[in-house]
Here is the input.
Amino acid sequence: MDLGLKGKVALVAAASKGLGRALAEELAAEGATLVLCARTDETLQQTCAAIRSATGAQVLGVAADVAKPADVARVVQAALAQFGQIDILVTNAGGPPAGTFEQHDAAAWDAATRLLLTSVVELTRAVLPGMKARGWGRILNITSISVKQPIGNLLLSNSLRAAVTGMARTLANEVAADGITVNNILPGYTRTERVEHLAGAAAARENISPEQATERWTNEIPMRRLGEPREFAALAAFLCSERASYITGTSTAVDGGWLRGLY
Ligand code: NAD
Here is the structure.
């Protein structure tokens, strides 16, 4: 299947590692031009160089913290200056701290809101006018399986990703007639540094080993293994593509069967 991504310009946020990077690799392999951001310039430029040499794609890396609206504006300006347009937006950020309700003060809520919700709002605000003007766009938000089944001890993530989901579902209807789709992709437990970090946090909390924490998760997954970033990226790239033209307002999991509901 030709995904119709050749010549499209994709801005993938938080893409030096993990799920964002895996999706960036997939989009580049399909012929898209990339603009990537992450906070640490050195790691980001290494990722950009690796993708360029593996795929021959044009890749611009702009160091930025998506939790800061001024940084978001700078990334979008750099992308437009270099490539003239942004056809595909993938919103993403690092995960917020784990913890229960009583472990998060007002400052923690504020920081997590900027990271998970404000970043999506600002990125979307910046790219939407150009997409509307061209009558074509793809917005894909990386959220989590926690929007359909909240995960214990991840209160901030559970709460704020639900807010992103509500915004996306509403926006999808507002821009559907402009040729713009808005979807969410819900990773399950996928082998990245984030999952290693969560396993370490669970191990410290419960006095078990990180391997035992990971094993407990794999026992909850019908496929009995963590996902690989490439498995996530396959669906994500499709949802960003021309071929996904009649899919909007959806939240789809890539989770090895972890979600048990009928949807
Ligand atoms: P990761 O920690 O492996 O990678 C995160 C990437 O985001 C890195 O490139 C990092 O540099 C970048 N980043 C972090 N904070 C940033 C910021 N403020 N501004 C710009 N860049 C930033 O994480 P991942 O596993 O790829 O997860 C991506 C998102 O998906 C996270 O929000 C995570 O909570 C969520 N998620 C992951 C899983 C999983 O199993 N991996 C499951 C559900 C949800």
